[in-house]
Specification:
21 strands; 9-stranded antiparallel sheet; 1 helix; G6P_1-epimerase; carbohydrate binding; Beta-galactosidase, Chain A, domain 5; binds 6-O-phosphono-alpha-D-glucopyranose; mainly beta
């Protein structure tokens, strides 16, 4: 008899098994799509719509030791992004991606999807993360400051999605024309995107828009659409060869097969939560032929 009361009942389309490094991960094999989510960071490392090819990039050098953040997939950045608004917060991108989350439920959804819910409570913040795996991937993160917690730093969050692309130098990123952005590579604020974005070098930009962004990928013959939900920012990141070479958990050539398009609420959009208040942020990812 299963006496583990912390483990929810799973439908036949899901299994909780040891993954890489022996780390616990949820496998979902729904009629409309499959996915893999590690409890460490509630970190989704794979999503494939039924009959399609994988949409999410995870580095072949990613570390699965329940300590380091996982390189690739969808790191959850919370309750701050990078070093936070104050610029001195550690660990980078907050504690969400390096904490063990609890799996609360896994339920079949209409249309052949499966939804998994994860929770985490720390430092006066209760986080709820919903992952809906189907023909589309829908991720929703809610953060609530506990009623008795003192008001703290402004809250930032990002769904730091690593998209798998056939050749990053050939992709075109549309949906950002005319949007203001902070260029973190040059340090220049208040830049304006003109036309579609092409990736021709190290790219690290925080755009002031959460509207849909489309990555057209001729090498894979597909368009991947990332739609922010209540996102006020979109971060676009590629480390390029030199940046990837400097990362211990990414091979130098892997920069060419990924592009991060992150629905976010960061920087000037950070929210100061009063005790009992909450904020939520989502992203929806869908694929269509080119
Ligand atoms: O190396 P990580 O801590 O995972 O961060 C990877 C990247 O995340 C975001 O996209 C930031 O905008 C970048 O500045 C950062 O380099």
């Amino acid at each position: 008899m299963d006496t583990d009361t912390t483990r929810p009942r799973l439908p036949r389309t899901a299994a909780l098994t040891p993954g890489r490094g022996g780390q616990p991960r949820l496998l979902i094999d729904a009629p409309a799509g499959s996915a893999e989510i590690y409890l460490h960071g509630a970190h989704l490392t794979a999503w494939t719509p039924r009959g399609g090819r994988p949409v999410i990039f995870t580095s072949r050098r990613a570390v699965f030791d329940a300590v380091a953040p996982i390189r690739g997939g969808v790191p959850l950045c919370l309750p701050w992004f990078g070093a936070g608004v104050s610029g001195d917060r550690r660990p980078a991108h907050g504690w969400g991606r390096v904490s063990p989350w609890q799996l609360r439920s896994v339920e079949p959804q209409p249309g052949g999807a499966v939804q998994a819910l994860f929770t985490l409570e720390r430092d006066g913040i209760a986080a709820l993360y919903s992952v809906s795996v189907g023909e589309e991937l829908a991720l929703t993160l809610s953060l609530r400051r506990s009623a008795d917690a003192p008001t703290d730093h402004p809250v930032e969050a990002a769904l730091h999605t690593y998209l798998a692309v056939g050749d990053v130098t050939a992709v075109e990123v549309s949906g950002l024309d005319g949007v203001h952005y902070l260029d973190k590579v040059t340090g220049r604020a208040d830049q304006v995107q003109r036309g579609a974005l092409r990736i021709t070098g190290q790219t690290d930009r925080v755009y002031a828009s959460g509207s849909p962004v489309t990555v057209s990928d001729p090498a894979y013959g597909r368009r991947v659409r990332v739609t922010g939900v209540r996102a006020r920012n979109t971060v676009v990141w590629n480390p390029w060869s030199a940046g990837a070479a400097a990362l211990a958990d990414m091979d130098g050539d892997e920069f060419a097969s990924m592009l991060c398009v992150e629905s976010a609420v960061v920087g000037d959009s950070a929210t100061r939560l009063e005790p009992g208040e909450s904020v939520s942020l989502g992203t929806r990812i869908a694929v269509a032929p080119l």
